[in-house]
Design goal:
Structural class: alpha/beta
Helix content: 40-55%
Radius of gyration: 42 Å
Order of helices and strands: HHHHEEHHHHHEHEHEHEEEHEEEEH
Largest sheet: 7 strands, mixed
Distance between the termini: 109 Å
Oligomer: single chain
Strand content: 5-15%
Number of strands: 12
Length: about 500
């Protein structure tokens, strides 16, 4: 027996149920083209209803189909696609004759809908769906040419954030003395490993003097955190030296050893005294001892060659001159810092005979040298880590059978191992290689020259076999004995 619903479907050529199911089967995520296609099919099926009146059930199904079409149009509008009516196929609007007889069956009021079960009528106006215009294509802005990367690929791992040039953006808890010190180190006003280490410790002493422990905090714990922000600012201006790192580790240990029960004023006073003692023993007295030991290696008639400027080497030469020894000095220098000029001027003012040369003339002046006296940025068991160009001087001296003597304080000794200058180094701004104020220089506009990159390394590594001896405050040692001196200096 055929059911009443099946017989009713056969008598409905308009296929309103198919329209509703079709609207449900078309997801809102489909493109506008699919929605239009489905709406055209629904329109063809709906045209058959113009000859017959719709029953209450058919009206309800038609309202349901329109509701589904409205929801689909709203979702398409949110996704940036034009709204499509799945029944009529119109975009953004309903049929103009939706309330008239002959459009989709009998006359159906546009603002009233009769409920089948309750028989009540509700005034629910069917708003017209908005039509979303396709976005107009604005005038295309010509793409800017990509800026060429001026970093040398082989040393790309050494490049970090640009050095800070102003105090703008510094933390509010950074001490004013630290702000000034960072810019002085960045501009090479304070230059040299020992000078930077001493200046940093003296500034930290001022930081401790002005420090106040916050409530519900202890000095050993909070002061270490407070110093970390000062250190971060100094690193942003210029990477710290090996001696500075050793001093920072020592200071943090001293702070952590402070007894919590000690009054704050007494604890700060003890820390300041410890800093003064560290500077006196590790730098001031150590330099005097090293200068005295190195003086024993200088004889009358010697020609001492040195590179750039080292404070301990300068002190050694001055001490030897004051003892009445007759010798001559050759200062080899290199760009861009040209530190050797200051050393040559200071020695010449004392009355010493000084010869100044750049690195390209080292093969000529090395023939007159009898000893090479070098300073150190750091001393490793694998070699000497110092200003770039030091390795060239040491290798040239080895070729000419001239002994190489390194003067180095124990605070500069490190257990770090390096076999070359590529893994660990400091890259200075490439602009420092350009001669300032000289517009005719070929490098005056080097950033605009394609495929041109400048590399400004600060240090190089001299292998241990090119160093004959290392003079420290603990005695004269070979580079392989550096770990022994580190243990001695740590225990004392």
């Amino acid at each position: 027996m055929v059911s009443e619903n099946e017989e009713h479907e056969k008598n409905l050529p308009n296929g309103k149920q198919k329209v509703a199911s079709m609207a449900e089967e078309v997801p809102a995520t489909n493109g506008a083209a699919k929605a239009v296609k489905a709406s055209e099919q629904g329109k063809k099926l709906a045209d058959g209803s113009r000859e017959k009146e719709l029953s209450g059930k058919e009206k309800k199904e038609l309202a349901k189909a329109q509701k589904i079409a409205k929801r689909a149009a709203e979702k398409q509008k949110q996704q940036g696609q034009p709204a499509v009516d799945l029944v009529t196929g119109n975009k953004g609007e309903l049929p103009k004759d939706s309330g008239k007889k002959g459009s989709l069956g009998p006359a159906i009021p546009a603002s009233k809908t009769q409920h089948k079960r309750t028989g009540s009528t509700s005034a629910s106006a069917q708003p017209s769906l908005p039509h979303r215009q396709a976005p107009s294509h604005a005038a295309l802005v010509p793409a800017q040419p990509e800026k060429e990367n001026k970093n040398v690929a082989l040393f790309d791992h050494l490049y970090g954030p640009p050095r800070r040039t102003t105090v703008a953006g510094a933390g509010k808890d950074v001490h004013p003395a630290v702000l000034a010190l960072g810019l002085q180190m960045r501009n090479y006003i304070i230059c040299g490993s020992s000078a930077r280490c001493v200046a940093m410790l003296l500034v930290f002493k001022r930081v401790i003097e002005s420090y106040t422990t916050p409530p519900r905090n202890s000095l050993p714990r909070h002061l270490t955190t407070h110093l970390s922000s000062q250190i971060d600012y100094l690193v942003s201006c210029r990477p710290i030296a090996i001696s500075m790192g050793n001093a920072i580790r020592w200071l943090k240990v001293e702070i952590s050893n402070v007894d919590v029960s000690t009054p704050e004023s007494q604890a700060k006073s003890d820390l300041c005294d410890s800093i003064d003692t560290y500077v006196r023993e590790k730098v001031t007295v150590a330099d005097q001892v090293i200068a005295n030991k190195a003086n024993d290696k200088i004889e009358d008639g010697d020609v001492i060659m040195t590179f750039a400027k080292s404070s301990i080497v300068q002190q050694t030469l001055v001490e030897a001159f004051r003892r009445g020894k007759k010798f001559r000095v050759i200062v080899v220098d290199s760009r861009p810092l040209l530190e050797g000029k200051n050393l040559a001027r200071a020695l010449a003012d004392l009355g010493l005979e000084v010869q100044y040369s750049l690195t390209h003339g080292i093969s000529h002046v090395i023939r007159h040298a009898t000893k090479v006296l070098l300073g150190a940025h750091a001393m490793m068991s694998t070699g000497l880590y110092s200003r770039v160009g030091t390795a060239l001087v040491a290798m040239s001296a080895k070729e000419a059978n001239v002994p190489v003597i390194v003067c180095c304080e124990s605070v500069k000794l490190t257990e770090r191992v390096a076999l070359d200058s590529f893994v660990h180094n400091e890259v200075a701004p490439a602009e420092e290689l350009v001669i300032q104020g000289k517009t005719s220089s070929p490098l005056s506009k080097w950033e605009d020259i394609p495929n041109l990159q400048l590399l400004n390394l600060m240090y190089d590594l001299t292998p241990a076999e090119y160093v004959n001896m290392v003079v420290t405050e603990y005695g004269i040692i070979s580079p392989s004995s550096v770990p022994v001196i580190i243990r001695l200096s740590t225990n004392t």
